Amino acid sequence: MLDGEKIAFAAVGAVAASAILISTGLAARPVAPPEWNPRAAAAYLDQRQSWWESWPRAARDHGTVCVSCHTAVPYALVRPELRARLHEIDVPTPERRLVSDVVTRVRAWSEVKPFYGDTTPSGHIKAVESRGSEAVLNALILASRDQRAGMMSTDARQAFANMFALQETTGDEAGAWPWLNFGLRPWESTTSVYYGAALAAIAVGMEPRGYAESMDIQPNVERLRSYLRTHVDQSLWTRLLRRDDPNVFNRAMLLWASANLPDLISSEERRSIIAALWEAQERDGAWRLASLGHWREPDGVSFDSTGDGYATGLIAYALEQAGTAPNESHLARALAWLAAHQDSTTGMWRASSLNKKRDPGSNVGKFMSDAATAYAALALARARH
Predict the structure, then answer these.
(1) CA distance 282 to 333
(2) Closest residue by Cα to residue 128 from 136, 138, 143, 116
(3) pLDDT digits (tens, 9 = 90+) for 190-241
(4) How far apart are CA 328 and CA 320, in angstroms?
(5) Which pTM value belongs to this model?
(6) Which of 141, 97, 143, 134 lies closest to 112, judged by CA?
(7) What contacts 110, CB < 8 A, 6 or more positions away?
(8) Spatial distance between the Cα atoms of 315 and 321, rounded to a whole number of angstroms
């Protein structure tokens, strides 16, 4: 499952490096978290979510807006953290509307149209993919809200019921969910089913008061655990054909999920994943989305050769969730890189598409930077906890 020889070698190297640091007195010492501008990040994210909610192409039925993986989902996760950091009393309007839309669709689940697709033969597949994706994202957003409240809401309970009703129970993807495939990596492509399953595990684990141990969902949770453990790598045939294989990206998602869902992976597997993440880290402390696996480079697109805010923020946050201390040398370098690469004018962090060459100044061209800003802010905010 975890590409044994390569990761074992990386793990030995990581342990040896730690031993050297300790023996020379250079092991991580307590340091102040790096300085950054959370208010500017919050302003950027509010503006971007407001734009998304007003964009005609994002509008859906029942007066709701599509919950996007690039803008809305990371915004829902980070904005409450920023609100607490900034000691804000009022919930920003775009955050309030996002949660309200999710609640509306959860309550009217049997009535609302899917985000994409329809009942025609050509639209049926997209409708199934869309419902599976939305069900997971709805549960994640409401579980995140419940986690802060400390109790399970009626709406979250319904969202999980909707989600588990759509879980695959047979075939190679048993334990996962139908997931949108528009050929848009890393969130909506042929390999994104794993990303969706990891988010489902995070949602289940987030829900407070031991929801993950509820007897009525144990068959679902066991299928989910099995899927995540056995599908972290693409099949040998897929790898031989040099198709997309987001092996490091999937490991980062598995690590994050394991911090929320009990008994997902062993402590040895966790150490191996962390070693693989260290091995993929750039010398300056960043990570590159393009290097988190094997991705086919589309015509006219040149992958970034430098670190980006999304990959660095996501991995740093996953490591923090898994218990890595902010002053651990690798993580400290990542956090320092993030603090140094926030745009002082806009408050954002940069990331670019793996799929298309986009104008970074356009609204659509900022989608990757929306996710980069949210995850960078999550990692930096977490470092002060």
Answers:
(1) 10
(2) 116
(3) 999 999 999 999 999 999 999 999 999 999 999 999 999 999 998 888 777 7
(4) 10
(5) 0.91
(6) 134
(7) none
(8) 10
